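Render this sequence as a predicted structure.
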Amino acid sequence: MNLEQFRIVLGIEKDSEGRAVLPIADPSAQQIFGGQILAQLVANAAPGKTVKSLHVVFPRSGRPRDPMYLDLEKTHDGRSLGLRRAVVYQDQLAGGRRVVATGSVLVDRADDEYDYQFDVAPTSDPLAAKPIDFAVVPGEARLISDVGLDDVSAVPAELAFWMRCPDFADTSLARPVLAYVSDWPLIGTLLKAVPGLSQQDAHIRLQTGVVSHSIWFHQPFDVSQWLRVDIRGQRLTGGRGFGTGAVYTQGGSLVASFAQESVIRSLR
């Protein structure tokens, strides 16, 4: 996805009934990519304000060929913190609402206070890592881990890679881009630990999908510069997976964290 395509996905228009319509990135896909909705909420929840965190539940998958709408409520605006509540939905044949996602968006005004980081990312040269094609990254990606997401041998559920989007120098796009990317790698990382399976088995041998996703932004960052993304699959049991991620600048500053619960189970 290039810069212009990404800007179009973030746009919102009103239909004849005054409803806010969210663009669909890929109408030919099997289902709407959750990262698209995350990016749209970050970009549109509070114009002129900074999104501090986003917490979204996906009760069902979105249908790419049906229009998708956004209801956004301004719940609270304080001197430093504000809250938005969002409902993303599609119409049902019976005339009701088919809810695709519900979210809470915390907006924030940063204070000039303490600045301390407990963990520092390992330093390395992004250009020394292996170039890799991660379709969901709208730019360049380089694999730090020895094993990617398509290998079926059982290895630790960890993934590390560099990413940057050189065309995305507009700082207002940094958080939507990172929200978009963050939705993708956690399920595949969990599957690295399962013998004989990989992300390529999703929707073929496995039912997979995101149940809930949260992302926290700790400080401003530039997505046109190299960012290190570290993913850890924490638990896979009972048809549910849980994993976490951390995003660092090349200098080692932690700029964002995210966590995700997912459905991962054999097709019945």
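Summary. Residues 1-110 form a domain with the Thiol Ester Dehydrase; Chain A fold (CATH 3.10.129.10). The two ends are 34 Å apart (CA to CA).
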